[in-house]
Amino acid sequence: MGPAEADTLAPDGAYWTQALDLRLSTLSKQHRLNQRTLKDDMRSVRLMMHDLELRHNALSLACQLPVEILLLIFRLLATSEREEWLPVSQVCHYWRDVSLSDGSLWARVYVRSPSLWDLFVQRAQGQPLHVHVYNHGTWALWLEAAMKKDIESIQTLHIECPKLEYLEPAIRCPVRLVDALNTMAHAPRLRSLTVQRSIDGCSSQIDLGPHTLSSIPTQLEHIELRRIPFPWTAEAHHLHRLHVENIAQPVNIVLLGLQALPNLSHAYLQFENTSHAVPASDAMPTVVMAHIRDLVVGGAVAACTIMCRNIRLPPSAKMSVNVSSYREDVRVDDIRRLAKSAARQIQRLNEATSITVTAHAEHRSMIDIHVRGFRASPHGQADLRNVEISIPCFRISFELCDATNRVSPKYRFKVLRRMMASSEKTRWSALDVFGKWHLPLMLHEVVRPAVHLSALAMGGASHSMVKSALHQLQPELHSNEPAPIVFPALRHLTLSRMSLGCDHSECDGDDALIHSLRGMLNARKNDGYPLSTLELKECSIAREYAILFKLDVENLIWDGREGDAHERHMTARRLDVN
């Protein structure tokens, strides 16, 4: 039975089964069968399978998607999957035609071979190239030659400097490598340059020296250097974004370099924790960064202190200071000086209509303070002004003699007080305090002048601290004068991650915080300063008492958690309060 007869007798896939059985039967009868004959048959079957697969894919719903949706999917794959997205364009003729119709899909070049480089450049159809060079065996003579050949088309260049074993012998010389980097960095259409050295295998890294980039190309708008020195003596009026990590130069050199970058809008500067990063002299230039919108300074505490003190920012700029002490000895006086310098930056917010303060200390070795200012815009929207003084990695060796003072709640309070010394408290509208803070001192000495404070959040504090704070929020009764009140404009109170307890004798009894909280709410209501909203988040509280708060405030926001408020009070667990 031949294939034509099988086509008339066998439905669908049975045709191929009968045809293959017939071919195998014929081969088994041959006396001079060899591997070449079988390979030819196997090749023919593979080609037929490939054609059938293409036809099958062409009939799928995915291959019938509109061009606009396919292009959207392809762009997502091209930006996230590097060159691995290439097989997607080979699914069917329709997908191939769609992928070839948009040159920008091929303009992001991650390739690792000369043939793929030429393929991507050809299919980019003259679009600006975004080249990514990684150290996994990619740095070779062909790549350098290919980039020089198409240097006119390169707009974005991301280079990860290779380790020694990945280099061909001809370019293992540091001078040769630096020359290649400078040539690529001066591509005429280059707008964004990223150069970094990998931290793994440091023993095999090539020492590129202090002048990896001899100058800054005038057309560059964005530079990102990781473990690569930045030429601070160069001028770059077109540079808008700068990201430099592991800065080892003295801070005064960096400040002078920033003066030569007048149009910076975003900057990230991370200083090495080394003694030579800060010069002995205190003569530091003052830098006015008129166009900056977002400035991040991190690393050594002394360098961060000088940067805070000597940089002048516009009122609308956002500044973040991240001090890490992994490799340096951070002392109490260092943080005090940083807080004093930070006060100068926070003073910029005094023109704001309202100010919100967030002070977190979730770990014993961490202080995190955020200050945000707002002002009403002509269109009725809020124009955010933001200064962040953030110390999320304030880690200190406990072998030091004054480590206890550094992490105590009272010490954290002193840091906050010094930072906020020049802040206009009457403009404060919201305060969020979380962690091991000395709440009574904070509310009495720092926040008490904030007469317009409308929102207060407290969380993660001890029982005694919260109880004292709630007591301060009650009216102070005097016989011969009106009762003054703390935060007369307070309307929203949030309590989180604390135990309000249960007053049953087997639980907290009369010491339960629910008594202090309800007493404060009723006292303020009776004096004409009621709270409109009470929010409880992740608090331990008996259900029947939580629901009673509906009588004290207009809006009760409770996540319904009881926690271990009455762990031994089993009757309360059986109460069904709706």
Describe the structure in your own words.
The protein has helices at residues 3-9, 14-28, 35-58, 67-80, 93-100, 114-124, 141-149, 174-185, 251-259, 301-310, 332-346, 403-407, 409-419, 439-447, 463-472, 513-526, 543-548, 570-573, and strands at residues 108-109, 129-133, 154-161, 192-197, 222-226, 241-247, 266-271, 287-288, 294-299, 311-312, 318-324, 354-361, 367-376, 382-393, 428-435, 455-459, 492-496, 499-501, 533-537, 540-541, 555-558. The chain is flat, with a radius of gyration of 34 Å. β2 (129-133), α7 (141-149) and β3 (154-161) form a beta-alpha-beta unit. By secondary structure, it is an alpha/beta fold. α1 (3-9) runs antiparallel to α2, α11 (332-346) runs parallel beside α13 (409-419) and α15 (463-472) packs parallel to α16 (513-526). Helices cover 33% and strands 20% of the residues. Among the domains are: 66-101; 454-578, no CATH class. The strands form three sheets. The protein has a 17-stranded mixed sheet, covered by helices on one side. Strands 8-10 form a two-stranded parallel sheet.
